[in-house]
Amino acid sequence: MSIVYINILEQPAHLDLQFLQDVLENALYITDFNIKSAVFTMGSNVGENYCSQIYRVKIAYELINDQENIKEISIIIKSIPLIDGIDFLVDLNVFHKEYIFYKYVLPRMEMLFRRENIKFAPRLYKTLKRPLQTLAFEDLTRLKYVLASREKGLDGLHARLIMKKLGEFHAASRALLNNAPEFQNCFKSGMISELSLKRDDGMLMRFFGGSLMSLIELIEKWPDYEEITKKIKKYAANFKENLLRSIASSRNGFNVLNHGDLWVNNMLFQYNEVREPVDINLVDFQMSVWSSPGIDINYFFYTSLELNVLQREYENLIREYYQSLNHSLRKLNHFESPTYQHIREEVRKHALYGFFANYGVFPTISMEKQYSIDSSLESFKNDDFAQQKLKQMFSSARLQETIRYTLKQFDQMGIFDS
After folding, report:
1. Domain coverage including residue 206
2. Of 176, 354, 349, which Cα lies nearest the Cα of 249?
3. Residues 6+ apart with CB under 8 A from 329
């Protein structure tokens, strides 16, 4: 049995033969096989994933009663590295949250839609707590699911498909609440939480704060943005309080399980023969949170859409989501369906979270590949490097064109006046 590492600087010693053996037993539902070889490559490009190491592993194996035919399976493995500055991941309990989602929540949600054969996410094969928190998943590329372009953003066809799937996902979480209300206890906080905001030295909060300052430096030079600049400076003076305000939701309101990090690289699309997207699966549920659907919708709108889609299809996409949600709730015999106006108000109430996503997350997503290849959590610990990257992010033509529009839109909504 041989293990080969291709373009991997540090070999993951914890992903040994026994680990791979356990993965295959769970993936294949059998034990009578021998592993012949395993080839490790990186599962994501440098600068595409900040909080974990992603590997794609192709495993060749033979069945004990059929040793002449070598079979192959591909799996995805995600490990959370032990480096300084990512204490926020511990605060957010990301490993436990993702484990609970894939092990207990996802199968029940998909079971609710078993007649429609709706699939939301890949299968989980195995987890490790030590030495590194690790999860092994089904590789969706075998089912022809692929990533879209984060640099370009998503067009209307992709966006409508996501809204449909998101409505189904949120509806399933509401229906599941009737049968297993305790599951929401694991999803009390998402990307922004009171605990992570208490850390003055937390890397995530320092990065978001740096992005906000870079935004102000950029727009204060623009004519016709003087008043907006003043309002954003006022927002920045109460940065943490405004972040908490952006995630506030009513305990008795219409809440759902939000994906929590709904941007283009956490979606894999399946296409038909004319390259139209026909299905989507979601990955990376470590930021999932039980809250208003306005969290997912605003985050997605202001991180992942092409600008012309945001400009022209904003209302249509909310309606697409509502129709999918309402139809799915009825199909699941869940009679507490909100009105369209209710959903519209939830999106509007959380537009401040959309603003956070627009200045805190979108700059990283829209960064050109040539500038992102050296980006990692480790490198962002260096203040000079972080400042250089922020300048590169905010010099992006796509970013500047987008925020010229979105800041005016947010101002018209009145989110800076509250």
Report:
1. 147-413
2. 349
3. 171, 174, 175, 335, 336, 337
